[in-house]
Design a protein that fits this description.
The protein is built from seven helices and five strands, in the order H-E-E-H-H-E-E-H-E-H-H-H. The strands form two sheets. It has a three-stranded antiparallel sheet, covered by helices on one side. A two-stranded antiparallel ribbon has the order 1-2.
Length: 214
Amino acid sequence: MVEHDEQTIRSADFILDLGPGAGEEGGYKVAEGKLERILSSRDSLTSQYLKGEKCIPVPVERRRPKGWLVILKAAEHNLKNINVRLPLSVMTAVTGVSGSGKSTLVYDILYRSLLNILYKAKQRAGRHQEILGIDQVDKVVSVDQKPIGRTPRSNPATYTGLFTSLRQLFALSPDSRMRGYSASRFSFNLSGGRCEECHGAGVKKIEMHFLPDV
């Protein structure tokens, strides 16, 4: 398992720590073994974070909202006529246990209401009294877990067209020219340049028949 989550690392039976840095500074085995062995390593950057010697600082100053969306009396499904204020121009996280009403509030009520008002759609929005502040919003986009392209290999770079420019850039490198590589050599979808173990997918899917695939 390749993982950066602290609790997962602490719970692992065996840890293999690579480094000591990234890119050209990496590629070495820094430490291996149980958690105690990793924590005792002086060369492990992972160890320094696990022991609290290093940390990722939380910004002292946060961006300030530029307006608010206010949902009044949200009552769809299990929502109990709640009033909710959502700040604009900042990142907002809606949290809660499974089934607590997060998707109902954000998708069924807010998203569908904005679709109806901004794009004249005819979606059935979840029950609520009113949403204030919509005049401060000019568009709404929903990003879910559905594939963003025609193949499982699609990613934000291929979807936006950025990857085309990247492939062309790779093809212009001295090594590529020397080997006669064209931009197509760097495609996930064509044999040759892609990894033939995973066929450009980034992972290998193993069918387990009566069990979930891994």
